[in-house]
Design brief:
The chain contains nine helices and no strands. Helix 4 packs parallel to helix 7. The mean pLDDT is 92.
């Protein structure tokens, strides 16, 4: 019996191949030079496609960056959720830190690219498909934090959702603020840990 999946046609395979070549070229060039020093023409040249073809997949350099960073962001969240599950039973703080550690490392892997990515998600057109996907990932991270906080007997479900928004704001500021750029990932994570601990402390004191 067949697998039930329709075979992919030659035209669709060609489109997927071009998209992957564009993604690979953009990822390499952004990693080598930073988004600010790369042009869409350079990406098209390395991907071996016409500039008009590239614009069929991403109409701006910002969209190219979001395409690339969305993949990395999704992988970081997957890794963080797995680490958080492994840290279960250690209260709320340690699993939350386990979840956000790969996210912090992802954003700070190349600080210019990470800062630009988050800026584009926040201030770009939310109806643009790649931004929609990125915002959905941000929502997935927030939901993950919410779920971990609800395991804390001192934090109610409504408070958990609010606290998760506060914590994601802490992550955003701590990973993108210019004053923190010189700091190591471990130093940034330690600072984030302190802020989250202080945020959760009133709930524990009132219990």
């Amino acid at each position: 019996m067949g697998s039930g999946h329709m075979p992919i046609g030659r035209r669709e395979r060609a489109k997927q191949d071009k998209r992957e070549r564009i993604m690979t070229a953009a990822r390499e060039l952004f990693g080598e030079h930073g988004v600010g020093s790369v042009t869409t023409q350079q990406v098209a040249r390395r991907a071996d496609v016409a500039i008009g073809t590239l614009y069929l997949y991403a109409s701006t350099k910002a969209e190219l960056l979001i395409m690339v960073q969305n993949q990395k962001f999704a992988a970081a969240i997957d890794s963080g959720l797995a680490a958080a599950d492994a840290a279960a039973g250690q209260g709320a703080l340690e699993p939350v830190i386990a979840l956000i550690r790969p996210v912090v490392e992802c954003v700070r892997e190349h600080t210019e690219n990470g800062r630009t990515y988050l800026h584009e998600l926040l201030f770009g057109d939310p109806a643009e498909p790649y931004r929609q996907a990125g915002l959905a990932l941000a929502g997935r991270l927030e939901d993950g934090v919410t779920s971990l906080l609800t395991r804390d007997e001192h934090v109610g479900a409504a408070d958990a959702a609010t606290l998760a928004r506060v914590i994601t704001a802490i992550i955003h500021i701590s990973t993108t603020a210019t004053v923190h750029l010189h700091r190591s990932n471990e130093a940034v994570l330690a600072d984030i840990r302190d802020q989250i601990h202080a945020t959760l402390a009133p709930h524990h004191r009132s219990a």
